[in-house]
Design a protein that fits this description.
With about 270 residues, the chain is mainly α. It is built from twelve helices and two strands; from the N terminus they run ααααββαααααααα. Helix 7 runs antiparallel to helix 9 (about 160-185) and helix 8 runs antiparallel to helix 9 (about 160-185). It is globular, with a radius of gyration of 18 Å.
Length: about 270
Amino acid sequence: MKTEITTEYIDGILKEFLPKSHDKVLQAMEYSLFSGGKRFRPMLLLNTAKAVGKHISEGARTLAAALEFVHTYSLIHDDLPCMDNDDMRRGKRSCHMQFGEASAVLAGDALLNLSFETALRGPMSNKAYRNACAFLFEMSGIRGLVHGQSLDLFSATENVEDATELAVAKTGTLIRAALVCGATVGGATEEEIALFDEIACKLGVCYQIIDDILDSQKCERSFLDVYTESDLLEHVETLNGEVKAICDSLPYDLNYIKEFCDRNAARKK
């Protein structure tokens, strides 16, 4: 039976790994996990694993859940008053507004820890799987998401290089995790994995550019500090072309990445 990788399919995987108790912190975790996210990061991971390895392994499913737990933790903490101070997320009250700041901090902490617990339940005897786990958590830490948040909070966007570094660090890291982890558990070569990583960095920049354009009224730091909107859209088109060219150079059906490029460029929210 052919597996269709949908948001519902991914939600089912997430529920497999969630604890069964239902205290206030778990309620806050579930509230943020199932608040209408697009799940495109685990979709990229699963589609990459399937394209490279010809099937969706248990390792890929496990890493997809761990990745989304990390992503949701980052959103909860990003919204906190001490960070981005956002009251709304995806049209709903943000986690700390709904459950209180203390519960939101604990929910984020719990999701990050749950991602480790989840990853460790995968096939740790498999070297490729271990490598994928290591990369996921590298992208979650001081060389990934944490670095990106630090740049966002404590540095200025003075040129294109600054904006690109922030986009790759804050937005691109989990896209990198998705493609690299998927390619790794799928059995890609080191050279191919490097190309998937290059694709992911470009996708991260494109995604952040569209976000900045859509959020131009509230973004304090963005590509719009150093580029006009028309220049940014042209830059996205150029990067998308480079991504598609790399996809064509790889011996896999990567139409899902090309479609992601087009959907992102046409995004309205």
